[in-house]
Amino acid sequence: MEFSGTFELEDTTVDEVWLALSDPVLVQESLPGCTFLLHVEAEEADFDELGEQAEGMDRELTNDPEVIAGRAFREGERYAALMQVSVGPVNPTFETVVTIDERDRPRMHASGEGSSGDSSFEMSSSMALSETEDGDGVAVEWETEADVFGKVAGMGQRVINPVANRIVKRFFSSVQEELHDLGVEAVSSSDGDESDDRSLVDRVLGRSKSTDSE
Protein backbone atom coordinates (compact mmCIF):
# COMPACT_ATOMS: atom_id res chain seq x y z
CA MET A 1 0.00 0.00 0.00
CA GLU A 2 1.19 3.51 -0.81
CA PHE A 3 0.17 6.72 0.91
CA SER A 4 1.32 10.26 0.19
CA GLY A 5 0.33 13.87 0.53
CA THR A 6 1.35 17.42 1.37
CA PHE A 7 0.46 19.28 4.54
CA GLU A 8 1.03 23.02 4.92
CA LEU A 9 1.97 24.60 8.25
CA GLU A 10 1.21 28.31 8.53
CA ASP A 11 3.28 31.19 9.93
CA THR A 12 6.45 29.17 10.45
CA THR A 13 9.79 28.38 8.80
CA VAL A 14 11.60 25.25 7.67
CA ASP A 15 14.08 25.57 10.56
CA GLU A 16 11.27 25.89 13.11
CA VAL A 17 9.42 22.85 11.78
CA TRP A 18 12.62 20.81 11.54
CA LEU A 19 13.41 21.69 15.16
CA ALA A 20 9.95 20.58 16.26
CA LEU A 21 10.08 17.32 14.29
CA SER A 22 13.54 16.58 15.71
CA ASP A 23 12.04 16.31 19.20
CA PRO A 24 10.74 12.83 20.15
CA VAL A 25 8.70 14.36 22.97
CA LEU A 26 6.80 16.70 20.66
CA VAL A 27 6.33 13.92 18.10
CA GLN A 28 4.94 11.62 20.81
CA GLU A 29 2.54 14.32 22.02
CA SER A 30 1.38 14.98 18.46
CA LEU A 31 0.87 11.38 17.32
CA PRO A 32 -2.72 10.22 17.91
CA GLY A 33 -2.84 7.15 20.16
CA CYS A 34 0.90 7.20 21.00
CA THR A 35 1.58 6.09 24.58
CA PHE A 36 5.36 6.46 24.42
CA LEU A 37 8.21 6.99 21.97
CA LEU A 38 11.64 6.07 23.30
CA HIS A 39 15.15 5.45 22.01
CA VAL A 40 16.15 1.78 22.25
CA GLU A 41 19.62 0.25 22.23
CA ALA A 42 18.78 -3.41 22.92
CA GLU A 43 18.56 -5.88 20.06
CA GLU A 44 14.95 -6.63 20.98
CA ALA A 45 12.66 -3.95 22.38
CA ASP A 46 11.04 -4.98 25.69
CA PHE A 47 7.77 -3.05 25.60
CA ASP A 48 6.82 -3.89 29.18
CA GLU A 49 10.12 -2.50 30.39
CA LEU A 50 9.83 0.50 28.09
CA GLY A 51 6.34 1.21 29.43
CA GLU A 52 7.66 1.27 32.99
CA GLN A 53 10.55 3.46 31.90
CA ALA A 54 8.18 5.90 30.22
CA GLU A 55 6.04 6.20 33.36
CA GLY A 56 9.09 7.19 35.38
CA MET A 57 10.29 9.83 32.93
CA ASP A 58 9.52 13.52 33.15
CA ARG A 59 10.07 14.89 29.65
CA GLU A 60 8.43 18.24 29.09
CA LEU A 61 7.77 20.02 25.84
CA THR A 62 10.21 22.85 25.29
CA ASN A 63 11.33 25.40 22.73
CA ASP A 64 14.93 25.28 23.96
CA PRO A 65 17.14 24.16 21.02
CA GLU A 66 19.85 22.91 23.39
CA VAL A 67 17.45 20.60 25.23
CA ILE A 68 16.01 19.33 21.96
CA ALA A 69 19.51 18.76 20.55
CA GLY A 70 20.32 16.51 23.49
CA ARG A 71 17.36 14.21 22.86
CA ALA A 72 16.84 14.70 19.10
CA PHE A 73 16.32 11.80 16.72
CA ARG A 74 19.64 10.46 15.47
CA GLU A 75 20.42 8.89 12.14
CA GLY A 76 20.93 5.13 12.37
CA GLU A 77 19.23 4.86 15.77
CA ARG A 78 16.11 2.89 16.68
CA TYR A 79 13.01 4.11 18.49
CA ALA A 80 10.13 2.17 19.99
CA ALA A 81 6.56 3.42 20.05
CA LEU A 82 3.36 1.97 21.51
CA MET A 83 0.43 3.15 19.42
CA GLN A 84 -3.28 2.45 19.38
CA VAL A 85 -4.93 2.85 15.98
CA SER A 86 -8.65 2.70 15.23
CA VAL A 87 -9.24 0.84 11.98
CA GLY A 88 -12.90 0.21 11.27
CA PRO A 89 -14.40 -1.76 14.17
CA VAL A 90 -11.04 -2.73 15.72
CA ASN A 91 -8.59 -0.76 17.87
CA PRO A 92 -5.27 -2.61 17.77
CA THR A 93 -2.31 -1.43 19.85
CA PHE A 94 0.88 -1.80 17.84
CA GLU A 95 4.32 -2.39 19.33
CA THR A 96 6.41 -0.55 16.78
CA VAL A 97 10.15 -0.14 16.23
CA VAL A 98 11.37 2.50 13.78
CA THR A 99 14.89 3.17 12.47
CA ILE A 100 15.94 6.65 11.35
CA ASP A 101 17.63 5.71 8.07
CA GLU A 102 18.41 9.26 6.97
CA ARG A 103 18.17 12.60 8.72
CA ASP A 104 19.59 15.50 6.74
CA ARG A 105 17.63 18.74 6.84
CA PRO A 106 15.20 19.22 5.19
CA ARG A 107 14.66 15.49 4.57
CA MET A 108 14.13 12.48 6.78
CA HIS A 109 13.60 8.82 5.95
CA ALA A 110 12.60 6.07 8.36
CA SER A 111 11.64 2.40 8.19
CA GLY A 112 10.06 0.10 10.70
CA GLU A 113 7.64 -2.61 11.65
CA GLY A 114 4.93 -3.18 14.18
CA SER A 115 2.73 -5.97 15.52
CA SER A 116 -0.49 -6.26 17.46
CA GLY A 117 -1.96 -9.69 18.11
CA ASP A 118 -3.28 -10.90 14.75
CA SER A 119 -2.11 -7.88 12.74
CA SER A 120 1.29 -6.52 11.72
CA PHE A 121 2.92 -4.15 9.26
CA GLU A 122 6.22 -3.14 7.68
CA MET A 123 6.73 0.36 6.41
CA SER A 124 9.12 2.81 4.80
CA SER A 125 8.39 6.52 5.12
CA SER A 126 9.98 9.78 3.99
CA MET A 127 9.36 13.47 4.55
CA ALA A 128 10.70 16.67 2.96
CA LEU A 129 10.20 20.28 4.06
CA SER A 130 10.11 23.35 1.84
CA GLU A 131 8.83 26.91 1.99
CA THR A 132 5.33 27.49 0.68
CA GLU A 133 5.01 29.62 -2.44
CA ASP A 134 3.91 32.68 -0.45
CA GLY A 135 6.88 32.28 1.90
CA ASP A 136 4.68 32.39 5.01
CA GLY A 137 4.70 28.72 5.85
CA VAL A 138 6.15 25.28 5.30
CA ALA A 139 4.99 22.50 3.00
CA VAL A 140 5.60 18.99 4.31
CA GLU A 141 5.64 16.40 1.54
CA TRP A 142 5.32 12.89 2.92
CA GLU A 143 4.99 9.42 1.50
CA THR A 144 4.77 5.96 2.99
CA GLU A 145 4.92 2.47 1.56
CA ALA A 146 3.46 -0.18 3.84
CA ASP A 147 2.79 -3.90 3.79
CA VAL A 148 -0.03 -4.80 6.16
CA PHE A 149 -0.80 -8.33 7.32
CA GLY A 150 -3.47 -10.09 9.32
CA LYS A 151 -6.91 -8.88 10.38
CA VAL A 152 -6.29 -5.22 9.56
CA ALA A 153 -5.06 -6.11 6.06
CA GLY A 154 -8.33 -7.92 5.43
CA MET A 155 -10.20 -4.61 5.66
CA GLY A 156 -8.54 -3.40 2.46
CA GLN A 157 -6.97 -0.15 1.38
CA ARG A 158 -10.34 1.61 1.07
CA VAL A 159 -10.65 1.37 4.85
CA ILE A 160 -6.97 1.78 5.75
CA ASN A 161 -6.24 4.76 3.48
CA PRO A 162 -8.65 7.19 5.20
CA VAL A 163 -7.28 6.08 8.58
CA ALA A 164 -3.70 6.84 7.50
CA ASN A 165 -4.70 10.23 6.11
CA ARG A 166 -6.62 11.07 9.29
CA ILE A 167 -3.62 10.22 11.49
CA VAL A 168 -1.27 12.33 9.37
CA LYS A 169 -3.67 15.28 9.34
CA ARG A 170 -4.16 15.15 13.10
CA PHE A 171 -0.42 14.80 13.65
CA PHE A 172 0.58 17.86 11.63
CA SER A 173 -2.35 19.88 12.99
CA SER A 174 -1.06 19.11 16.48
CA VAL A 175 2.50 20.03 15.46
CA GLN A 176 1.14 23.36 14.19
CA GLU A 177 -0.57 24.00 17.53
CA GLU A 178 2.54 23.11 19.52
CA LEU A 179 4.69 25.40 17.36
CA HIS A 180 2.41 28.32 18.12
CA ASP A 181 1.88 27.46 21.81
CA LEU A 182 5.58 26.98 22.53
CA GLY A 183 6.72 29.89 20.42
CA VAL A 184 9.45 27.73 18.89
CA GLU A 185 12.15 29.97 17.48
CA ALA A 186 14.25 29.31 14.42
CA VAL A 187 17.83 28.23 14.96
CA SER A 188 19.98 30.53 12.85
CA SER A 189 23.37 29.43 11.58
CA SER A 190 24.31 32.90 10.38
CA ASP A 191 25.01 34.53 13.76
CA GLY A 192 28.11 34.02 15.85
CA ASP A 193 31.34 32.17 15.22
CA GLU A 194 31.58 30.10 18.41
CA SER A 195 32.24 26.40 17.81
CA ASP A 196 29.69 25.43 20.47
CA ASP A 197 26.99 27.40 18.64
CA ARG A 198 28.01 25.76 15.36
CA SER A 199 27.83 22.30 16.92
CA LEU A 200 24.40 23.01 18.42
CA VAL A 201 23.02 24.24 15.11
CA ASP A 202 24.40 21.21 13.27
CA ARG A 203 23.01 18.77 15.83
CA VAL A 204 19.52 20.23 15.84
CA LEU A 205 19.23 20.78 12.10
CA GLY A 206 20.76 17.43 11.17
CA ARG A 207 23.47 18.98 9.01
CA SER A 208 26.30 16.96 10.49
CA LYS A 209 26.09 13.21 11.06
CA SER A 210 29.25 13.17 13.17
CA THR A 211 27.95 15.59 15.79
CA ASP A 212 25.01 13.32 16.61
CA SER A 213 27.37 10.74 18.07
CA GLU A 214 29.55 13.15 20.03
TrEMBL record:
Residue stretches of biased makeup (Basic and acidic residues): 197-214
Annotated stretches, region: Disordered: 105-136, 186-214
* Pfam family name, one: COXG
Residues in a coiled coil are none
List where Low complexity composition bias occurs: 111-130
Which SUPFAM superfamilies did the record assign?
Answer: Bet v1-like
The record's annotation in PANTHER family points to: BLL0334 PROTEIN
Protein name (Swiss-Prot/TrEMBL):
Carbon monoxide dehydrogenase subunit G
